[in-house]
């Protein structure tokens, strides 16, 4: 599986880089995971957006769905008489946002049931409800070759993430804070990401959903220290690709 970062900031785009969005490619299948601000522009550098096979959304905060609307227009305006419809998978606990996933002659919303594994092309996806102010789901994505990619989506740290991420080939975490952050938070710190990677025994940790005002090298150092030397720790950046 090839994972390409299309956007990796939390909250809002900054310095020519957008918010949460990742292109997952396996066996010729193109899955867009979250579709934040700037995702469509970034995607165009890698793939004709009409070649997407599906979109999968972790939750309906705008830093994860801002470009869904323009992606729908792209499909509507480039679709040969509406012959192809792009499936967009999202949860159904927010009917207003779920309903908006369907756009005539362009896209159709499909509700996933988080307690059941979901098959999309070559991917099998398991879900875990996260700790976030709105309903959000972490995802464990497995290929036919049993390679595993775990995406925490947006969440505060909670212990169920450890078995969920167990032995993943790649863990991509919401790391919106450095180690000094205290008090109530809805995202993880660099330290929590590193500790999670170590406790779950993952091979590689990629920090994403990054803050605009903290040096990435600081986040990386803190996470690497917590994760230990056996985990490769990297920071997401637009156009960076990872293979598992
Ligand atoms: Zn977010
Ligand atoms: Zn969020």
Automatic annotation (TrEMBL):
Domain Metallo-beta-lactamase intervals: 18-209
Keywords: Zinc
PANTHER family listed in its UniProt record: METALLO-HYDROLASE YHFI-RELATED, ZINC PHOSPHODIESTERASE ELAC PROTEIN 1
One MF annotation (Gene Ontology) recorded for this entry: 3'-tRNA processing endoribonuclease activity
SUPFAM superfamilies on file: Metallo-hydrolase/oxidoreductase
Highest taxon of source: Bacteria
Protein name in the entry: Beta-lactamase domain-containing protein
One Pfam match: Lactamase_B_2
Gene3D superfamilies (alphabetical): Ribonuclease Z/Hydroxyacylglutathione hydrolase-like
Ion transport in keyword set: no
């Amino acid at each position: 599986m090839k994972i390409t970062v299309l956007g990796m900031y939390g909250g809002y785009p900054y310095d020519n880089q957008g918010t949460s969005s990742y292109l997952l490619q396996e066996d010729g299948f193109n899955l867009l995971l979250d579709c934040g601000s700037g995702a469509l522009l970034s995607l165009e550098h890698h793939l004709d957006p009409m070649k997407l096979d599906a979109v999968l959304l972790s939750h309906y905060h705008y830093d994860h769905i801002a470009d869904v609307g323009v992606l729908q227009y792209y499909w509507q305006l480039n679709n040969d008489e509406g012959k192809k419809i792009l499936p967009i998978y999202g949860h159904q606990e927010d009917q207003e946002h779920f309903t908006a996933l369907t756009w005539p002659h362009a896209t159709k919303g499909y509700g996933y049931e988080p307690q059941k594994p979901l098959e999309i092309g070559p991917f099998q996806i398991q879900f875990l409800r996260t700790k976030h102010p709105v309903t959000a789901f972490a995802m464990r994505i497995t290929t036919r070759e049993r390679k595993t990619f775990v995406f925490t989506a947006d969440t505060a740290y909670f212990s169920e993430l450890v078995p969920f991420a167990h032995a993943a080939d790649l863990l991509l975490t919401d790391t919106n804070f450095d180690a000094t952050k205290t008090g109530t938070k809805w995202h993880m710190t660099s330290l929590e990401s590193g500790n999670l990677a170590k406790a779950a025994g993952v091979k590689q940790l990629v920090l994403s959903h990054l803050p605009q005002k903290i040096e990435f090298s600081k986040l990386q150092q803190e996470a690497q220290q917590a994760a230990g030397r056996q985990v490769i720790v990297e920071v997401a950046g637009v156009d960076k690709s990872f293979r598992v």
